[in-house]
Amino acid sequence: MTAQIIDGKAFAAEVREKVAGHVSRLKQEHGITPGLAVVLVGEDPASQVYVRNKGKQTIEVGMSSFEHKLPAETSQEELLELLDRLNADPQIHGILVQLPLPSHVDEELVINRIDPDKDVDGFHISNVGRLATGQKSMVPCTPLGCLMMLRDQRGSLSGLDAVVIGRSNIVGKPMAQLLLGDSCTVTIAHSRTRGLPEVVRRADVVVAAVGRPGFVRGEWIKPGATVIDVGINRIEAPEKGTNDDGSVKTRLVGDVDFDGAVQVAGAITPVPGGVGPMTIACLLANTVTACCRANGLDEPEGLTA
Ligand code: NAD
């Protein structure tokens, strides 16, 4: 059996199309344009690329994009003051602070200064608590994207055995909460888990968020399981040759041994082109959701947890 390959790029395009439809209705029927503010401190090249892509896609779906690029030496106080202004600005429905922040800034303090209703990354302690207690919350974008793909692929997730490998606050923990919310029997595995292959072998749904190339072996997968690979790892690819400076070319791979797992799984996300594109799409979805809630309007269907 060969697994169905879940096309995250196409799925993300569908989500963005839905978002654009809601944005258009909000503008036409209510005169409201959803707005997303992204704050970047410093010049980390990867963060600059993420922020550029977020801004571009925000505009493409018809929303307003507000970018605040601050120098690396910006003080914590200045950053908090900017967040206070963004919190109070009615044109802004979503606020995202690009992580990581420079070491002189207390990341937790900054994240918790964002108005929880505008916290489109879902990292504010109130949103973490709301998600854990089953209340309406802003849900972290990457796990939300994984959940959307799982629901689309499996229909109801109720009663399925799910294993989440990784317990980070950004992916593993919220993913486990979402699966629990959809009535899966959830196991969270991590670096101290014993007998991981056996744990994974029981699972109808496997979400891998470890950060190690090809870590989850094909022979661990239960036949027919749905495998969601969150990992993004850059490895050397000598088969692609060398760069002008003589260094070996690289390629991206996930946390799952794709070639092995694709022979056994029922469905699997590739890397690249799986979970990755869903993250920004879900950021846009969260911004529309936040805008609707802020204006007392019905939430868009299919874009929240
Ligand atoms: P993290 O480093 O914060 O967490 C990794 C987790 O893996 C930890 O909880 C750890 O317990 C677990 N782990 C480490 N070694 C293990 C082992 N031997 N066995 C079992 N578990 C082990 O990473 P993160 O932020 O959760 O990200 C995980 C991966 O997902 C990374 O590759 C990251 O680049 C990727 N990621 C992708 C997206 C996206 O697609 N947009 C978003 C966030 C993260």
Automatic annotation (TrEMBL):
<dbReference type="GO" id="GO:0035999">
    <property type="term" value="P:tetrahydrofolate interconversion"/>
</dbReference>
<dbReference type="GO" id="GO:0000105">
    <property type="term" value="P:L-histidine biosynthetic process"/>
</dbReference>
<keyword id="KW-0560">Oxidoreductase</keyword>
<keyword id="KW-0521">NADP</keyword>
<dbReference type="GO" id="GO:0009086">
    <property type="term" value="P:methionine biosynthetic process"/>
</dbReference>
<dbReference type="InterPro" id="IPR046346">
    <property type="entry name" value="Aminoacid_DH-like_N_sf"/>
</dbReference>
<comment type="pathway">
    <text>One-carbon metabolism; tetrahydrofolate interconversion.</text>
</comment>
<dbReference type="InterPro" id="IPR020867">
    <property type="entry name" value="THF_DH/CycHdrlase_CS"/>
</dbReference>
<keyword id="KW-0028">Amino-acid biosynthesis</keyword>
<dbReference type="InterPro" id="IPR020631">
    <property type="entry name" value="THF_DH/CycHdrlase_NAD-bd_dom"/>
</dbReference>
<comment type="subunit">
    <text>Homodimer.</text>
</comment>
<keyword id="KW-0486">Methionine biosynthesis</keyword>
<feature type="binding site">
    <location>
        <position position="232"/>
    </location>
    <ligand>
        <name>NADP(+)</name>
    </ligand>
</feature>
<protein>
    <recommendedName>
        <fullName>Bifunctional protein FolD</fullName>
        <ecNumber>1.5.1.5</ecNumber>
        <ecNumber>3.5.4.9</ecNumber>
    </recommendedName>
</protein>
<comment type="function">
    <text>Catalyzes the oxidation of 5,10-methylenetetrahydrofolate to 5,10-methenyltetrahydrofolate and then the hydrolysis of 5,10-methenyltetrahydrofolate to 10-formyltetrahydrofolate.</text>
</comment>
<keyword id="KW-0658">Purine biosynthesis</keyword>
<feature type="binding site">
    <location>
        <begin position="166"/>
        <end position="168"/>
    </location>
    <ligand>
        <name>NADP(+)</name>
    </ligand>
</feature>
<dbReference type="Pfam" id="PF02882">
    <property type="entry name" value="THF_DHG_CYH_C"/>
</dbReference>
<comment type="similarity">
    <text>Belongs to the tetrahydrofolate dehydrogenase/cyclohydrolase family.</text>
</comment>
<keyword id="KW-0378">Hydrolase</keyword>
<keyword id="KW-0368">Histidine biosynthesis</keyword>
<feature type="domain" description="Tetrahydrofolate dehydrogenase/cyclohydrolase NAD(P)-binding">
    <location>
        <begin position="140"/>
        <end position="293"/>
    </location>
</feature>
<dbReference type="InterPro" id="IPR036291">
    <property type="entry name" value="NAD(P)-bd_dom_sf"/>
</dbReference>
<keyword id="KW-0554">One-carbon metabolism</keyword>
<dbReference type="GO" id="GO:0004488">
    <property type="term" value="F:methylenetetrahydrofolate dehydrogenase (NADP+) activity"/>
</dbReference>
<keyword id="KW-0511">Multifunctional enzyme</keyword>
<dbReference type="Pfam" id="PF00763">
    <property type="entry name" value="THF_DHG_CYH"/>
</dbReference>
<dbReference type="GO" id="GO:0006164">
    <property type="term" value="P:purine nucleotide biosynthetic process"/>
</dbReference>
<dbReference type="InterPro" id="IPR020630">
    <property type="entry name" value="THF_DH/CycHdrlase_cat_dom"/>
</dbReference>
<feature type="domain" description="Tetrahydrofolate dehydrogenase/cyclohydrolase catalytic">
    <location>
        <begin position="6"/>
        <end position="121"/>
    </location>
</feature>
<dbReference type="GO" id="GO:0005829">
    <property type="term" value="C:cytosol"/>
</dbReference>
<dbReference type="InterPro" id="IPR000672">
    <property type="entry name" value="THF_DH/CycHdrlase"/>
</dbReference>
<dbReference type="GO" id="GO:0004477">
    <property type="term" value="F:methenyltetrahydrofolate cyclohydrolase activity"/>
</dbReference>
